[in-house]
Design goal:
The chain has a two-stranded antiparallel sheet with strand order 1-2. The chain is about 55% helix and about 0% strand. The chain has one domain (about 5-195): EF-hand (Recoverin, domain 1, Orthogonal Bundle), CATH 1.10.238.10. The chain has about 200 residues and is an all-alpha fold. It contains nine helices and two strands, in the order αααααβααβαα. InterPro entries: EF-hand-dom_pair.
Length: about 200
């Protein structure tokens, strides 16, 4: 498995495989809708918000099955997703040309972490997302260090705007560089954790 595939497998494992079973199924998306509701609503459940996320998740799941394909048990595997994204993203010129389910994932993550609803992330919002969604984070210093790698001289207010975020996400899904800072856009991500993301039920 090359480093590009490892990066995507780790991302899909953390962000989509909510039950941590080693693959993705419809139940993963239902659980994700519930978690997104609680995160968006400050730890409370609101039916109208949950239904919104559930409807979005169903459209998202249907597009994933259509584009990538499910096995006989209705499961979508990380490797198949990574191969699909590699194939369709190699000619992409910007974020808008990425696969639909990738854009949906990126938009959902940004929305959930943008607690101030001002169209950008600051360090505290990045920390909140990393703690809530990253499996292998053990210290706040790791999160802060990952955030720093995403900063450039142009980020004078030390935040990540939505446009900058989309550009970094595009690099995450298209760059062949093992050490690209973009690997941290969804939270700290280190390739050495790849074995922890796979189970005996994972396609390898």
């Amino acid at each position: 498995m090359d480093d590009y595939t490892k990066r995507l497998v780790l991302c899909f494992s953390e962000k989509l495989d909510q039950a941590k079973v080693g693959y993705i199924e419809w139940n993963s998306f239902k659980l994700m809708a519930m978690r997104a509701t609680f995160q968006q609503c400050g730890g409370t459940h609101k039916d109208e918000v949950y239904e919104m996320y559930l409807q979005q998740s169903k459209l998202w799941w249907d597009s994933l099955v259509r584009d990538v394909g499910a096995d006989a048990q209705g499961r979508v595997h990380y490797i198949d997703m990574a191969n699909y994204v590699r194939g369709i993203s190699k000619d992409a010129k910007d974020f808008e040309q990425l696969p639909e389910f990738i854009k949906n994932l990126a938009n959902l993550v940004f929305l959930m972490n943008d607690k101030k609803a001002d169209g950008k992330w600051d360090l505290e919002e990045y920390r909140n997302g990393a703690v809530g969604w990253c499996r292998y984070v053990t210290g706040i210093s790791d999160i802060d260090a990952a955030y720093e790698t995403l900063m450039t001289a142009a980020d004078v207010d030390r935040t990540i705007s939505f446009d900058r975020y989309k550009a970094i996400v595009f690099e995450f899904f298209t760059s062949a560089d093992s050490n690209t800072p973009s690997r941290h856009i969804f939270g700290p991500l280190e390739l050495c954790n790849i074995d922890l993301a796979l189970t005996t039920s994972s396609k390898q």
